[in-house]
Design a protein that fits this description.
It is a single chain. The protein is α+β, with helices and mostly antiparallel strands. The chain folds into two domains: 1-32, no CATH class; 33-219, Glutaredoxin (3-Layer(aba) Sandwich), CATH 3.40.30. The chain is 40% helix and 23% strand. A six-stranded mixed β-sheet has the order 3-4-6-5-7-8. Strands 1-2 form a two-stranded antiparallel ribbon. It is globular and about 45 Å long. Residues 42-198 form the Thioredoxin-like fold domain. Keywords: Isomerase, Signal.
């Protein structure tokens, strides 16, 4: 969802209950929208207002089909709550499905390259949705140029798009995955699996197979 504010130049139509009126102005993006940042430990990506009333941690693998389903089913809804400042999402990628390829490592690196530019949170969330929509489980995954195109179309700033296209190293994927798997194992030592979504404020793993899990989370704030 985009938040718009008006400044003088053109006409926007404002619809109210039972009537309409014209407001002069040109639409531009609110500069105070939530942004994206790399976490203090260097291996997570915080998307949204760090003071949001609902905060979740998403452990995800770039080749995991269930992670792709999570993004397809709930990505736009997460983006909406993020843009309103109600939700913050910390992505923690892991790469345990990288066997004969570096697919997951390269996708993770592209995410961190994008995050370094502190893009608008909704743009970063759109980039994540595109990456998981173009996964190739067991394959080589999208090329650096293809990921750069996805980043550009999502609204990621140009310097980050260029860094992704060059394949510039933005994170050590091995260290990143090791730490995030360790954190994931602390949540459920019996089964280290993705996607896992953790409620950081209530300290509990969320049941993402309840189709209303996200709406229920927001309803509690």
């Amino acid at each position: 969802m985009r938040i718009w504010i008006a400044v003088a130049a053109a006409a926007l139509l404002l619809v109210t209950v039972g009537c309409t009126r014209e407001v002069t102005g040109t639409a531009r993006l609110d500069p105070n929208q939530p942004r994206t940042a790399v976490t203090d430990d260097g291996y997570g990506i915080l998307v949204g207002d760090p003071e949001a009333a609902a905060q979740i941690e998403v452990f995800t693998e770039p080749q995991c089909p269930h992670c792709a389903t999570l993004q397809a089913d709930y990505g736009p809804e997460m983006a909406s709550y993020i843009s309103l400042g109600q939700l913050a999402v910390t992505y923690r990628p892991v790469t345990f499905l990288d066997q004969d390829t570096d697919h997951s490592a390269r996708v993770s690196n592209a995410m961190f390259a994008a995050a370094e530019a502190a893009p608008r949170a909704v743009a970063f969330q759109a980039f994540v949705e595109e990456l998981w929509a173009h996964q190739q489980p067991g394959g080589s995954g999208p090329t650096d140029i293809e990921m750069a195109d996805m980043a550009q179309e999502s609204g990621i700033p140009a310097p980050a798009v260029q860094a992704i296209a060059r394949g510039r190293e933005a994170v050590d994927p091995g260290d990143m995955s090791d730490l995030n798997i360790e954190l994931l194992a602390q949540l459920n030592s019996d089964q280290v699996a993705t996607p896992t979504v953790y409620d950081l404020l209530n300290n509990e793993v969320l049941d993402i197979y309840d189709e209303n899990w996200l709406a229920k989370l927001i309803s509690t704030i």
